[in-house]
Write a structure and sequence with these properties.
The protein has about 325 residues and is an alpha/beta fold. The chain has helices at about 15-30, 50-60, 80-90, 110-120, 135-145, 160-170, 180-190, 220-250, 260-270, 275-285, 285-295, and strands at about 5-10, 35-45, 65-75, 95-100, 105, 125-130, 155-160, 205, 210-215, 305-310.
Length: about 325
């Protein structure tokens, strides 16, 4: 397997070409000084964003020494599916694997800061940055620093954790919204709740690693619709968190035994824990609406594979 100091995966679906381009350039700059494979995974039925990014990057100046950049398209609009495709098909092997959202422009020292924080402590399996931008950023940052956590905009996993996911066949359930918290929970149980207790220390929270968020200009109506969809997804995430907690923390089952879909995960939890679910629905009506929408969830596609649309530098051979 190819081996790098670090790998970087940037996941994108709805960003504008300008925003995604800026995110990728920031990730590349933060990789300076490391032997790095930076992969951009664009998911969704349209290939235009991935192709446009590849064309833009072809016009940029040369990458820092030791950095390889690859652009992929996954023709399914689902981040969990894209994450699984990266882990099992694209990850090139690295001592540390970073995950970045397509709108999060990491600071130049963010990756190196997390790498130092994780260090050689065998108890620490990964690390995460903290937000500094947005209305709830200060509250969330303080909460993460006091109680632990993981932030999907920027986190990292040790290479052996990635290898374990591959070897055991761990995959996030298709359609899952809370992808990062599910990964974080598995890591905090050291990947096996039957053998290890929950330990927040297994994910290092780095107060010095952060990012800025680039947002596209939207109309007021578009913003209103987007806010409702976001709140509905968050309500879905509330159900997912309860179901994942039941699976890992209560029943002590392995992460790789999670159901294949978020639909199956949540419906099974509601069916087996009806009283708890009804209490949740009374307190959070949007959670009930999210639950009612689950039967409309699409079926798992027949594993469409990622397609590479660009590689920079184009004449770079595989590392050995």
């Amino acid at each position: 397997m190819t081996s790098y100091d670090i790998s970087v995966a940037v996941f994108s679906a709805r960003e504008t070409p300008e925003i995604l381009h800026g995110t990728v350039l920031a990730a590349v700059e933060a990789s300076r000084g490391f032997a790095t494979c930076c992969d951009v995974i664009v998911n969704g039925p349209s290939v235009a964003l991935a192709r446009g990014l590849s064309e833009r990057l072809g016009q940029d100046e040369a990458l820092p020494p030791g950095v390889v950049l690859r652009i992929f398209h996954v023709p399914v609009a689902d981040k969990a599916h894209a994450w699984n495709a990266y882990v099992h098909e694209l990850w090139p092997g690295a001592a540390l694997a970073f995950f970045i959202d397509g709108y999060a422009r990491v600071m130049p020292d963010a990756l190196s800061s997390i790498r130092r924080g994780i260090g050689d402590d065998a108890e620490i399996l990964g690390g995460t940055g903290v937000p500094t931008q947005g209305r709830s950023a200060s509250r969330l940052r303080a909460q993460m620093l006091r109680h632990g956590g993981i932030h999907g905009n920027l986190y990292a996993l040790r290479g052996w954790v990635m290898e374990h996911f591959r070897a055991t066949g761990f995959r996030l359930p298709f359609g899952l919204y809370r992808t990062d918290s599910t990964v974080g929970s598995a890591v905090k149980f050291r990947l096996d709740p039957a053998r290890h207790e929950w330990n927040e220390r297994r994910l290092f929270v780095d107060a010095g690693a952060t990012w800025t968020v680039a947002e596209a200009v939207r109309s007021p109506l578009h913003l209103l619709r987007g806010q409702f969809r976001r709140r509905l997804r968050q309500a879905q995430g509330m159900l997912e968190n309860r179901a994942v907690r039941q699976h890992l923390a209560v029943e002590h089952r392995k992460p790789e035994a999670l159901p294949k879909t978020a639909h199956a995960l949540v419906l099974d939890w509601v069916e087996r824990h009806g009283d708890e679910a009804r209490t949740l629905f009374r307190r959070h009506p949007l959670a009930w609406l999210a639950y009612r929408r689950f039967p409309l969830a699409p079926a798992i596609p027949n594993n469409p594979h990622p397609v590479m649309l660009g590689r920079f530098p184009s004449d770079h051979g595989e590392r050995t």
